[in-house]
Design a protein that fits this description.
The protein is α/β, with parallel strands linked by helices. The protein folds into two domains: about 230 residues, ABC transporter transmembrane region fold (Up-down Bundle), CATH 1.20.1560.10; about 220 residues, Rossmann fold (3-Layer(aba) Sandwich), CATH 3.40.50.300. The protein is built from 16 helices and nine strands. One of its GO terms (cellular component) is plasma membrane.
């Protein structure tokens, strides 16, 4: 597509240079015909031909401009979308510790602004600066052949100085955009944070306090934005003054050569005037674009900085057949604020493991080691005899499924939420049976939706229990060898949990789950008491001392 846009751009630029030259020929020819005592048919033919050529050239130029604008818009839409895609892909590949440091609102703003910044930089270079350079070169060539080499050199020198001045002002300009970006990011972060805690704000009667705080931040943002926009306008005025001087100088010089020296024809005068006037608009556009490049460079740099963060380096080691899935061998690792010493443990195929322990002891941290979000400090952790102590294997994700204690329902259709990343095909009847088994068909009737209807904002009204059951179905439809669940029944009543757990146990070969519910212990083949684990580890540490 860029080749098509470049072709249109080149043709448009060349026509823009040639049209004034055709107008010059038309004027000179008409003057020659009018002053000649004998008007020949040949002279009139030239005039008709030149008039026709000029009109057709203008028509073709305008048509090409429209096609150029259309294709350039498509190109930059695809370009910007590709950058957003790569930025999100990069985020997913970051280490868990890096992701935790990034605010969702700030990242979203940086992602789109950075993609737009890259797009604007590319646009300024390809569609503003390069066409102007080509246009100036073409004008200099025409002027050298019609007016004189000296005149064309003056024109070239002034054009180069104008371009150089625009670039110099841009790169010498103090950074006036970072403060605005940071201030806007602060506003975005504040809004997302307060929307998430809207109910808490309401019941604690802190609405006026929060709105006052937001108003203060808005005033800070407006003050910084206003100050920096004034600076940007001043820099633009510097460039516009020089462009105006460029226009004035060559217009006066042309008038002098035409009236006083009579060294140029009326057609030459029109040619020069048209060239100068036609350059002023692109030069003004260029000056404004280049001034904004500073902000675009900053936005692009912020976008690029995310690519320099530490990424997950996953191996592609093939997994072996094994009766044991995970195996800890003499492992040391952190559970919350506690250090576990010399831990040995196996998660064997076909068993159900239930982890218990007081709140905050680090049970979720243990799951993080199983799913590769964290690495142990010492010893070995294996999955099917593949060592994942330092580098997790991407192949494991194909064999396990995870249900978080904060269940997620995504935007899209209900079918997409259920099937998600499953490698298996399910008919409508299959999915309806799963929904019925988990008592979720009522959400279809209540909201008058089918499997392929877009949930839009409906999913936001789902209860915690409904979201949790959807998350469990999603995990089970993947048909994993191991299902890891963090408080899977926290949002469910005991009756529903007791009904669903045997069904889950029957459908999934191996289960590892964290639960505070006593009834979950009924389904366990093995119980891991983290309270005892921490006590034992502390005693080992004291013995070492």
């Amino acid at each position: 597509m860029i080749a098509i846009v470049s072709s249109f751009l080149l043709v448009s630029t060349v026509i823009g240079v040639l049209l004034p030259y055709l107008l010059k020929l038309l004027i000179d020819e008409s003057q020659s015909s009018s002053t000649s005592q004998s008007v020949s048919l040949f002279s009139f033919s030239n005039l008709y031909f030149l008039a026709f050529a000029y009109a057709m050239g203008w028509l073709i130029s305008q048509a090409i401009d429209q096609f150029k604008n259309m294709f350039s818009a498509l190109f930059f839409r695809n370009f910007e979308s590709a950058l957003v895609y790569k930025g999100l892909e990069n985020y997913f590949n970051l280490k868990y510790e890096e992701q935790k440091k990034i605010e969702a609102g700030v990242f979203n703003a940086d992602l789109w602004r950075g993609a737009s910044g890259f797009s604007q930089i590319t646009y300024t270079i390809l569609f503003v600066i390069i066409p102007i350079v080509i246009q100036i070169i073409g004008m200099v060539w025409v002027l050298a052949h019609n007016i004189g080499v000296i005149y064309s050199l003056y024109f070239l020198i002034f054009s180069i100085i104008t371009l150089a001045l625009s670039l110099l002002i841009t790169f010498k300009t103090h950074d006036i955009f970072t403060a605005m970006y940071e201030s806007r990011n602060s506003l975005n972060q504040f809004i997302i944070e307060k929307i998430s805690g809207a109910y808490d704000i309401k019941v604690n009667a802190s609405l006026n306090y929060e709105l006052k705080e937001f108003d203060n931040r808005i005033h800070t943002f407006k003050r910084k934005a206003g100050h920096n926009y004034k600076k940007a306008v001043v820099f633009m005025l510097y460039q516009l003054i020089f462009i105006g001087f460029f226009l004035l100088f060559f217009m006066l010089l042309s008038v002098y050569l035409f009236q006083q020296k009579q060294q140029i024809t009326a057609g030459d005068f029109v040619l020069i005037s048209t060239y100068i006037v036609s350059l002023t608009l692109p030069l003004m556009m260029m000056s404004q674009s280049i001034i904004r490049l500073r902000g675009d460079f900053i936005a692009a740099q912020k976008y690029y900085d995310y690519f320099n963060l530490q990424k997950d380096e996953l191996s592609q080691k093939q997994l072996n057949q094994s009766t044991s899935l995970y195996e800890f061998r003499h492992s040391n690792f952190m559970l919350g604020q506690y250090l576990v010493h010399d831990f040995n443990f196996k998660i064997e195929h076909g068993k159900c493991y239930v982890a218990i322990g007081r709140t905050g002891i680090g049970k979720t941290s243990f799951i993080h080691y199983l799913i590769g979000l964290q690495q142990i400090q010492k010893g070995q952790l294996k999955y099917k005899d593949v060592d994942i102590s330092e580098q997790f294997s991407a192949q494991i994700f194909k064999e396990i499924a995870f249900v978080s204690q904060n269940p997620i329902v995504y935007s899209g259709t209900l079918r997409q939420n259920l099937v998600h990343n499953s490698q298996y095909n399910y008919s409508d009847q299959d999915l309806y049976e799963w929904l019925d088994r988990f008592h979720l068909t009522k959400i279809l009737h209540k909201n008058n939706i089918q499997l392929d209807d877009d949930l839009q904002d409906i999913y936001k009204s789902f209860s915690g229990g409904e979201k949790q059951r959807i998350s469990i179905i999603r995990a089970m439809l993947k048909r994993p060898e191991l299902l890891i669940m963090d408080e899977p029944t926290a949002a469910l009543d005991e009756r529903t949990s007791l009904e669903l757990m045997p069904f889950i146990r029957k459908r999934v070969p191996t289960i590892f789950m964290i639960s505070h519910a006593n009834y979950a212990l009924e389904f366990a083949d093995e119980i891991i008491d983290f309270n005892q684990l921490i006590v034992a580890s502390t005693e080992v540490e004291l013995d070492h001392k």
